[in-house]
Amino acid sequence: MKKVLFTFLISLFALAVNAQDAAGPVITFAENTYEFGDIHQGDVVEHTFKFTNTGDAPLVVTNVTTTCGCTAPKWPKEPIAPGDEGQILVKFNSRGKRGVQNKPITVYSNAKSTTRISITTNVLVDNN
């Protein structure tokens, strides 16, 4: 009987820990990567990444960073309620770029972990 009670208590503790881990805001993107395909050098392209707060507390996006000045993000500054959606607009300027470009974008928020999304494209150079 003691063994059964001990096993039951351990299971109850594990459930409580897992429930605690799931609490809070969770950022869930509809897509993590967007492919622009071929573009011409000098083109400016943009894409909107949509996300949902699938957690149980308000989500606050505190910062969005990129690896170079050719990629510019815009994100919501107001909290996103549980179940609500938000958007991150990413613009890429291909001036001075050539060939395959993969640009990671890091999303910082009050969720338990940072999230990385990315854009890719192939920049064609006109030979005039």
TrEMBL record:
Protein name, per record: DUF1573 domain-containing protein
Keywords: Signal
Keyword Signal among UniProt keywords: yes
One Pfam family in the UniProt entry: DUF1573
Record's signal peptide: 1-19
PANTHER family cross-referenced by the UniProt entry: LIPOPROTEIN-RELATED (PTHR37833), SIGNAL PEPTIDE PROTEIN (PTHR37833:SF1)
